[in-house]
Amino acid sequence: AQRILAATIVGRIDLDDAQQKACTELAAVAGPLEIGALLDAFGADATPATLDRLADSLATAPGRFSLESASVKTLFGDLPTAQPLIEELEAAETGRGQRLDELAAAIAGHQGDAERGKAAFTKATCAVCHKAKGEGGVIGPELTTIGAIRSERDLLEAIAFPSATYAREYEPFVVTLKDGSVKLGRIGEDAEESLELIDAQGVATRIPAAQIASREMAPVSLMPPGLERMLGDAELADLVAYLRSLK
Questions:
Q1: Largest CA distance in the chain
Q2: Fold of 96-166+223-245
Q3: For every one of its 247 residues, what pLDDT tens digit does the chain have, with 9 covering 90 and above?
Q4: Which of 47, 80, 125, 163 is deepest in the core (most CB within 10 A)?
Q5: How far apart are CA 60 and CA 206, in angstroms?
Q6: Domain ranges across the chain
Q7: Which fold would CATH assign to domain 172-217?
């Protein structure tokens, strides 16, 4: 959540060309949680040279598969260096069923271990947003009994394509205060006089309505697509085994 908040703040700042070029280096190592918000730093004033550098950085960025091809097209237009990335994202988006078949086949060759899956749960950043057995964040739905209601394929789809079964009431919001500060979290109680915002650690903060300048849905979900690419096949099998053990 802190990475997303930092990227969101950077994305809202009016950066000069030198600062935008520095951000291209951040994009090269950005994960799926923050990469979409970081791209907001590159607006219509970004120079072709800067966009070229950004396209090169995104080509191997670990979080690139959480980007939407339409958004990338809007940013880069017909820039030649960005076309391979756009084509890669389009192929990933149109091949959902095939991708799920590939993942199912990949983990079928491994004996998933629920104990090892706990480590994969942390590595894939699941625990940032989801609580399981009393541990983890609370911005996303609790997973303590997920194994009782989801099949293996359901879980693979939720990991690879979370928007397919996204729990709308858990959408993260960016709240900008009149003093210029920015807060990120899930909305709890929404009253006329105040707003309760719950962060990834489960800490609830009540913000007086008079202090709020704006609030909007975060530019990326806290669980963007493509998180399975952070894991090897054996680790993914372990993660699914762990989730299926939660009943």
A1: 57
A2: Cytochrome Bc1 Complex; Chain D, domain 2 (1.10.760)
A3: 566 667 777 777 788 889 999 889 988 888 776 788 788 888 778 899 999 999 999 998 988 887 888 889 999 999 999 999 999 998 888 888 888 999 999 999 999 999 999 999 988 888 888 889 888 877 788 899 999 999 999 999 888 887 665 566 777 788 989 998 888 888 889 999 999 998 766 788 999 999 999 998 875 556 767 788 889 999 999 999 999 999 9
A4: 125
A5: 40
A6: 2-94, 96-166+223-245, 172-217
A7: SH3 type barrels. (2.30.30)
